[in-house]
UniProtKB/TrEMBL annotation:
SMART domains xrefs: VIT, VWA
Residue ranges constituting the VWFA domain according to the UniProt record: 280-457
Lineage: Eukaryota, Metazoa, Chordata, Craniata, Vertebrata
Gene3D superfamilies per the UniProt record, alphabetical: von Willebrand factor, type A domain
Gene coding for it: VWA5A
Domain of life, source organism: Eukaryota
InterPro entries: VIT, VWF_A, vWFA_dom_sf
Protein name: von Willebrand factor A domain containing 5A
Domain VIT: from-to ranges: 1-131
Pfam families named among the record's database cross-references: VIT, VWA_3
Length: 724
């Protein structure tokens, strides 16, 4: 797969892609992406090229057109087999044709056959898609321009020949990128950040609800392009009402107005502090060969597997006493530390940590289906809700099968997923979390894995929200049809989008409320909004609503007797909305081209953005924070011993004192608060465990210990700040 030779001519001439332009239009929580790809055939023969490119897993392609010389071709959505036949007919009669379809195995790979390009002719292809933006831990909305496509690993015996992906070093990439974004929301935009350099943010109005931003020149194609958008009052629910398409049939999804409601609740502190202290925590860690790559492209490189091991250390130290846990690791085969989940305590924690320490990225490919089947086959433990944490660099070829398995078991567990490194499959990571009622996180660039994983552990420890119900209060003569699947789980820090079709009298005000039971406390969220559609909003909400419905129907088609009936419905909706599905494809044929194209056809793969070869990572020195954490006991306390003294940077004599465990634990807490506040996300849960251990000891000398500890460590941390 990593064969660069097939990309260039014998004279090392560049491949025919010249440039890429991208415009992003963000409306509150959703976005339209308009991209233009410019090609040129520099050969003296006609050329059939295939461009395979990645899209976010929940994206909906909604426009595809091509300009060849003076001719404009616009694609139509047709049933897949029909589209393929038309494409082959056009080519064999010498016409130009373009075909765009989803890969059957993984929804985030689209393959584009640009058909036959005459010598010295240029072609530009315009592709639009709509997508929902993911919410980050800090309330930012993340947009990632799919760039790096890691080689997909195809498990043995899996259906589908798999899409072959080729890759070259960045220095040889002969094309350029321009990227700009326009953001609008009912709320003011507080800032926009990126992992690439941006030109400054320009506000377009005084209330700062609209702004534009651009990627600075000189992009090197060595990473994903990521934008983070922050709104003020992020937790207020919002509604965007969009008018139907005038040309569409009234009463159809595209003809009626559609509303998108976003819910991103904050729960009362009193309820949140009653953190659940039970649960069965199952950690599933990727140990395929690619986990030996560096986590990011910085000096002092740490490998993905070593980050995962450090993260497991923090997780194991942060688990509550009395819960159950197990650790699985997988590659081409899988292993588990215990035959079944065991109760968490000092002995089991130490045994697990010893095994984690020995983990290497030595299990071959990435086959996640079998270990998942094994985990789900274990009976659940009464009163211990199952929480699954999956870590992978997301290079699997059977994404749909994996997501379906998670969905089938969604009643009995929550699934939290982590995509590691540039190019983790967003379809896999988002799909597992979405179907498993959990949360997805991506660790790219210079991100540290630990804070993101600890945030998900906080979600997993949150009390469960039950009995979520949504009611609509509409004016007389209006009805609402909800298109989204029912919301079954809500976390603090997790956003839900609801799409609904509005029929009848539209234009007056309406309200929507969502009720739930949180750890036994009823809670209600109300939102009043006008049903009058916003002016000129395009069809972004309609298309995402269509995509939502298409996904639901596709799932239904897979487990249904009347598969053909459901498939018909999907094709019909897909053709009406112009949104692609797994049963349809875009086909464009240049019909007014009478000249037949002369000469034999060449087939050439165009490189997707590159996966550079990284030098093997050097082993960085042990992080002092992890050194201290590794000494904590399962109960939450630390022991006074030479290892602790060394971790605190002191000699054994300096830390000697009676009532040693209380003293040692207070010293560790002061050191964390005094020197590691920037990493508080990572140690907050294990510090809370230490504080509750201390409270249970009822030690008389806490105040003196805190004073003496501050003097010894040269800190000034207040006893109250420690939570004592």
């Amino acid at each position: 797969i990593m064969d660069c030779c097939g990309l260039l001519t014998l004279q090392k001439e560049p491949v025919p892609l010249k440039s890429i332009e991208v415009e992003l239009e963000v409306r509150d929580h959703v976005a339209t992406v308009v991209s233009t790809l410019n090609y040129e055939n520099k050969e003296d023969k006609p050329l059939e090229a295939v461009f395979v490119f990645p899209l976010p897993g929940d994206a909906a392609v909604c426009h595809f057109s091509a300009q060849i010389g003076q001719t404009q071709i616009v694609a139509e959505v047709k049933e897949k087999q029909k589209a393929r036949e038309e494409y082959d007919d056009a080519l064999s009669s010498g016409q130009q044709a373009f075909l765009l379809e989803e890969s059957d195995e993984s929804p985030d790979i689209f393959s584009l056959r640009v058909g036959s390009l005459p010598p010295a002719e240029s072609a530009s292809i315009r592709l639009e898609y709509v997508t929902e933006l993911a919410v980050q831990a800090d309330d930012g909305l993340r947009f990632c321009l799919p760039g790096v496509l890691n080689p997909r690993y195809q498990p043995q015996g899996s259906e589908g020949a798999g899409v072959q992906v080729t890759s070259v070093p960045a220095s040889l990439v002969p094309y350029s990128l321009s990227f700009s974004a326009r953001v609008s929301s009912p709320r003011p935009i507080s800032k926009v950040e990126s992992n690439c350099s941006l030109d400054p943010l320009q506000y377009l109005n005084t209330d700062q609800t609209q702004a534009t931003v651009k990627l600075a020149a000189g992009h090197k194609f060595d990473r994903d392009v990521e934008l983070l958008i922050y709104y003020k009052d992020a937790h207020q629910p919002t509604a965007v009402v969009e008018a139907g398409q005038a040309s569409a049939e009234p009463g159809s999804l595209m003809g009626d107005p559609v509303v998108m409601v976003s819910l991103y609740p904050e729960f009362p502190q009193s309820v949140m502090s009653s953190t659940a202290s039970c649960g069965e925590f199952v950690f599933l860690v990727d140990r395929s060969g690619s986990m030996d790559c560096a986590t990011n492209n910085t000096e002092q490189q740490e490998t993905r597997i070593s980050s995962a091991k450090d993260t497991l250390l923090l997780l194991l130290k942060s688990l509550p006493m009395g819960c159950y846990f197990n650790i699985y690791s997988f590659g081409s085969s899988y292993e588990h530390i215990f035959p079944k989940s065991v109760e968490y305590g000092e002995k089991t924690m130490e045994e697990a940590l010893k095994k984690v320490e020995q983990m290497k990225a030595d299990l071959g490919g990435t086959e996640i289906l079998e270990p998942l089947k094994h985990i789900y086959s274990q009976p659940c433990i009464p009163t211990q809700p199952r929480q699954l944490f999956v870590f992978t660099d997301g290079e699997v070829g059977n994404t749909k099968e994996v997501i379906d398995l998670v969905k089938k078991n969604s009643g009995s567990h929550r699934c939290f997923s982590f995509g590691i490194g540039e190019g983790a499959s967003s379809a896999l990571i988002n799909g597992m979390a979405k179907e498993g009622g959990g949360h997805a996180q991506f660790i790219t660039g210079t991100d540290r894995m630990q804070p993101k994983v600890m945030q998900s552990l906080r979600f997993a420890l949150q009390p469960a929200v039950e009995d979520v119900s949504v009611t609509w209060d509409l004016p007389k003569g209006s009805t609402v049809t909800v298109l989204s699947p029912p919301i079954t789980t809500i976390f603090q820090g997790k956003r839900s989008l609801i799409y609904a079709q509005l029929t009848g009298q539209v234009g007056t005000a309406s309200s929507h409320s969502e009720q739930s039971l949180l750890a036994g406390h009823p809670s209600e969220n109300q939102l009043h909004f006008s049903l009058r559609p916003a002016e000129d909003t395009g069809l972004i909400v309609h298309r995402l609503a269509a995509r939502t419905l298409i996904c639901l129907l596709e799932m239904e088609a897979e487990n249904n007797e009347e598969k053909e009936e459901v498939k018909k419905k999907v094709v019909q909706l897909s053709v009406q909305s112009g949104v692609s599905s797994s049963f349809t494809a875009f086909i464009a044929v240049n019909k007014d081209n009478n000249k037949e194209i002369q000469g034999p056809l060449l087939h050439r793969d165009i490189p997707t953005l590159p996966d550079e070869e990284f030098p093997p990572a050097k082993k960085p020195p042990r992080d002092p924070l992890l050194q201290l954490v590794s000494l904590q006991k399962a109960s939450g306390c630390w022991l006074l011993d030479p290892a602790l003294a060394a971790a605190l940077g002191k000699t054994n004599e300096e830390v000697e004192k009676s009532n040693s465990e209380v003293w040692a634990t207070i010293l560790a807490l002061i050191w964390l608060h005094g020197f590691k506040m920037d990493a508080k996300d990572e140690w907050e849960l294990l510090a809370a465990k230490a504080v509750s251990w201390l409270s249970a000891q009822k030690a008389p000398s806490v105040t003196e210990c805190v004073e003496a500890g501050n003097i010894l460590l040269g800190c000034s941390v207040q006893k109250t700040a420690l939570g004592l």
